[in-house]
Amino acid sequence: MLKRNKLYFILMIGLITTFACSLTSPLENIPSADSSIPEESEAVVIEGLCDNPIYPVKQNATWTYFNTGGPSGDFSYTDTITEVRSDGFTLTTTFDNLTRTQEWACETGGLKALEYGGGSAAITTQSANMEFNTLQVTGISLPKEIVPGMQWLYSLTLEGTTTMPDGSQTNSNGTFSVTMQEMGNETITVPAGTFETIKFQSTTTMDIVGEFQGIQVPMQITGSTITWFAAGVGQVKSISNSDFGGTPFTLTTELQSYN
Questions:
Q1: For residues 112 and 137, is the Cβ–Cβ distance under 8 A?
Q2: Are 57 and 162 in contact (CB under 8 A)?
Q3: Does the first or last residue of the chain, that is N or C, have fewer Cβ atoms within 10 Å of its Cβ?
Q4: Do residues 255 and 192 touch, judged by C-beta distance below 8 A?
């Protein structure tokens, strides 16, 4: 159960704080960690299908994070871009004895996570294990143009099965939605350094319905997150407040190192 809980929290972070930048951009043109980000009156725009000013997509680029405050205890994980394509990339996350992959697409409107965590995603709560696959993706995870104060929506339609403690299984379906808003600039210090960042606020809702003995049983997981991204670096920090199976928690994620 500990392993699956950790997977769930990583998936939440991955969907709330999205990434991308194009390999076709010369490395010297990517802003350094201490570079200034645009003033509030400016929109953030970079040319190219996969380009994004606040996350550089490069083959074998690596970010290591440490998480505190979750019900599963403290843990670390590493994100690595293991494959880059002209129209997307593969993000691989590893921690302890668990590895997962997630496919991303580059579109004219921005970058989009194509899966809820990669193939089949597992959630364990109240002794029930739920396995989900993504049926439909709507919206953009990270827009190509970030305008001060802008809001956007990203959502997934999911279906799968729920396995109860006695081994019985039932069909389940649900939706996962994220509403994000740009909140301005802020200087943030984490173990990896001090960065000038863009701050984002997001709210998440996951609604799941399972059928048990002919009765439709709903479950909802809600949360809110503040995330900070640095130009040319990616996600620097996030603080998430969530209610997971009736248990509220605050999860803090900080960048330890990157290359």
A1: yes
A2: no
A3: C
A4: yes
Q: Pick from 132, 116, 114, 115: which is nearest to 124 by CA?
A: 132
Tens of pLDDT, residue by residue over 157-204, are 988 887 777 777 778 889 999 999 999 999 999 999 999 999 999 999
Contacts of 186 (CB under 8 A, 6+ apart): 197, 199, 228
How far is it, in rounded angstroms, from Cα 25 to Cα 61?
Answer: 14
> Token digits for 3?
């392993």
Residues whose CB is less than 8 angstroms from the CB of residue 16 and which lie 6 or more positions away in sequence, other chains included: 178, 180, 202, 204, 225, 227, 238, 240
- What is the reported pTM? 0.74
Domain boundaries, the chain: 2-258
What is the token pair recorded at 190?
Answer: 């984490």
